[in-house]
Design a protein that fits this description.
With about 350 residues, this protein is of the alpha/beta class. It has a domain of about 90 residues: Gyrase A, domain 2 (2-Layer Sandwich). Keywords: Aminoacyl-tRNA synthetase, ATP-binding, Ligase, Nucleotide-binding, Protein biosynthesis.
Length: about 350
């Protein structure tokens, strides 16, 4: 209709028609044509000098049809509202036709280079209930992984569990004191939570502290009985988490964890030592100087005085988790690693 009224070829008009920005405060039209942009090429005598009057005169010569069900004017513009029923029908038909590829067949994405992406998210601690604090990372991480996959990237979804550390020394001692194997099988996370609450009441006791340290040391030394109990905690926890993730529509390609890097963290310490980066304090604690002027104003502790590795050498963070970052690059040769 615009082509006929303005005596312009349709292709000349495409650049003059734009979408109207959505307004939260008021209902607006969907598309508009700017009078200024069409008068330059128009030979029509229906248009006078005043843009608002031009818009009104042009609108009067246009008729609503099956696609446009409302025509209105604005400051120097003619506005069009699309038939909502037709719009919904057209969009839904396209959704059904394209299926999972809906929205990503756009030419906008045709030049996006396909990459390998590692996305790590959720990361709850084993032997503890999945709670609201884990939900944000889980939902956001899964969303990012879905977007990457939809765009054709090769995505590896990793759940890096908190499954190592001194807290398992305390939990191990707690289970030896208060644990029940039947309850562990039937309601693992609830029972382990109850055990942890009970043993925490004794956490200030020197004997309990010593027992917890001994339990964790045995874990790091791969004592068979200690490791077997810890493995039960881990396996039961993962089973429970998988059930929860299934309800959320979330899945992972790999369940990793701090325990996986217990030996590799020793390799990292050796690498730091070989590069002259590992320093020892008077107490025997291993640190790495991160300060620019090498004055220890900023440093990272990577090894306890008793030789056991710390959270930082196993915990995933692009900046500090050397063991996991090195291993993931070796395993997956990623172009992008996203840690949520």
């Amino acid at each position: 209709q615009l082509s006929k009224v303005l005596d312009l070829p349709p292709e000349n008009l495409i650049k003059s028609i734009s979408a109207v920005p959505v307004s939260k405060k008021r209902r607006v039209a969907d598309f508009q044509v700017s009078i200024a942009s069409v008068t330059e090429d128009s030979s029509s005598d229906c248009l006078t000098q005043d843009p608002n009057l031009q818009a009104q005169k042009l609108a009067e010569r246009l008729k609503c049809d099956a696609v446009v069900n409302e025509i209105s004017t604005g400051p120097g513009t003619v506005n069009f509202t699309i038939n909502r029923e037709l719009l919904a029908k057209t969009v839904l038909q396209q959704v059904l036709k394209d299926g999972s590829e809906y929205g990503v067949r756009s030419e906008l994405f045709s030049t996006v280079p396909r990459q390998k992406a590692v996305v790590e998210y959720s990361s709850p601690n084993i032997a503890k209930k999945f709670h609201i604090g884990h939900l944000r990372s889980t939902i956001v991480g899964n969303f990012i992984a879905n977007l990457k996959a939809a765009l054709g990237h090769e995505v590896k979804r990793i759940n890096y569990l908190g499954d190592w550390g001194m807290q398992f020394g305390l939990l191990g001692v707690g289970f030896q004191c208060f644990g029940n194997k039947e309850k562990l099988k039937s309601s693992p996370l609830q029972h382990l939570f109850e055990v942890y609450v009970q043993i925490n009441k004794r956490a200030g006791d020197e004997d309990t502290k010593k027992m917890a340290k001994d339990f964790f040391r045995k874990l790091e030394e791969h004592d068979e009985q200690t490791l077997s109990l810890w493995k039960q905690f881990r396996d039961f926890s993962i089973e429970e988490y998988i059930r929860i993730y299934k309800r959320l529509g979330v899945h992972f390609d790999e369940y990793s964890g701090e325990s996986f890097y217990q030996e590799k963290s020793q390799e990292v310490l050796k690498m730091l030592e070989d590069k002259g980066l590992l320093q020892k304090t008077v107490e025997g604690t291993g640190i790495v100087d991160l300060s620019e002027k090498k004055d220890l104003s900023s440093f990272s502790t990577v090894m306890r005085s008793d030789g056991t590795s710390l959270y930082i050498t196993r915990q995933v963070s692009p900046a500090v988790d050397l063991a996991a970052a090195i291993d993931r690059m070796d395993q997956h040769s990623w172009d992008t690693m996203i840690y949520v």
